[in-house]
Write a structure and sequence with these properties.
Elements: E1 2-3, E2 8-9, H1 13-16, E3 18-20, E4 23-25, H2 51-66, E5 69-73, H3 82-94, E6 100-104, H4 109-118, E7 124-126, H5 130-136
Parallel strand pairs: 5-6, 6-7
Antiparallel strand pairs: 1-2, 3-4
Length: about 140
């Protein structure tokens, strides 16, 4: 959630925000503005110049690069999602870890789709629905 007045993003709203009349409010001592959702719509053009989106995107890439395992659950990795594809390839290229990649989806066609995108990184495709995967995880 985003506080426009403080220009801050709170990723742990359920732990720290104050709900009054079912409206989440900023917890900053000198602010009580309502939080707003901050959404990046799925389009070809995404503007990551906004400070908040830029920070989130940089942290996401850093987290992927440091990860030991990545799970893609029910994500089709659409060709239109150029930004996430670029971020993933960049993070994987600079990672010093041998990241284990798991793709969980009942659609077997995604296995080839991910292989075309990632090449041979030893990714494992698990052909299951999310609920079935959770039972065996």
């Amino acid at each position: 959630m985003y506080c426009r007045r403080c220009d801050e993003l709170d990723l742990a709203v359920e732990q720290v925000a104050v709900a009054k009349d079912l409206i989440w409010r900023c917890i900053n001592t000198y602010c009580s503005a309502e939080y707003e959702p901050l959404i990046m719509m799925p389009t070809y053009y995404k503007d990551y110049q906004d400070r908040i989106f830029k920070e989130v995107w940089e942290k996401a890439e850093e987290s992927v690069a440091l990860a030991k395992e990545l799970y893609f659950i029910g994500y089709a990795l659409p060709d239109a999602d150029i930004h996430i594809r670029t971020m993933l390839l960049s993070a994987l290229a600079r990672s010093s870890n041998k990241i284990k990649i798991f793709v969980v989806d009942p659609d077997l066609q995604l296995e080839e789709h991910y292989h075309q995108f990632l090449g041979d990184r030893g990714q494992r495709f698990i052909q299951k629905k999310f609920s079935d995967f959770l039972e065996t995880f």
